[in-house]
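Quick board copy: two proteins, each given as sequence then tokens.
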Amino acid sequence: MLHQNPVVSDVLATAVSGGTALTVLRLFEETAKRGVFDQKLNRKLVHVSFGLVFMLCWPLFSSGHRGALLAALIPGVNIIRMLLLGSGIWKDEATVKSMTRFGDRRFVTRVIWYPHCIDDRGESGLIGLHRLYLNNCSTDL
């Protein structure tokens, strides 16, 4: 726990998790803009690192419903952001370039739904989600 009060602790955990996730995403947007990595590798690093950040920040939250809901805000906000980017409502070419193979913004809306498919192996929660991210990321490498 980050604080003695569980409500304050969950709010602080949300701020830390959100800030860390945003920092990682901004870092890879910059690397895509500057061409530091190959576009394919950059995209894979975005997927793997965002999943890892989410998994590593999960223990900061309390085990109750409030902790789970606040933890779900982090990927939830990112999903809404990707929907806005993919639909063209929000323009951010660096993000589109860092997340897509060919720079097509419409691909962003398709890619956010793939990790949310039901897994037939019965894996649950974070482990199943991260395994899906890793499988997606390792296919092109």
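And the next:
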Amino acid sequence: MDNKITAMESKISQLEEQNKELQRQVDYNRNKEAALQKVLCNYDNFLKKVIMEKNVVCDHEQTIVHLANLESAFNELLQKYEKAKVVVQGFQQNETLLKKQVTDYEEILESLRVKFATYKSLSDDSLNCVNHKKGCDDCKGKRKRLLTSF
């Protein structure tokens, strides 16, 4: 019986040793698992950061493309504005020239009206002279004076 007790005590101590060894392995595995979870968490955070940076880079590139398109459109608009400005300046110069020509033609027209009125007056006077045969010499002198005034 003593043998049995000793064997049992030895078995108990062996089992306790095994239990302690298993407990150490469990603790070791838990620590390993915690470290692995920490590594996985860091890896997940790193992937999220890389994806965010990629999105930022894509957004930045897209913004650059939009800015280039906007700059091109603005440049085209500026060129069209410059062309329109030249055309408007041409119209303004033409307007000034046409206004000057109109005033010149109005002056010519007025002088022609005066000449017409004078010639009409002369012809009326000549007809009156011919019709009345009196004072014909006065009419000829008057006509000469009017013609020399032109």
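Board note added afterward: The radius of gyration is 59 Å.
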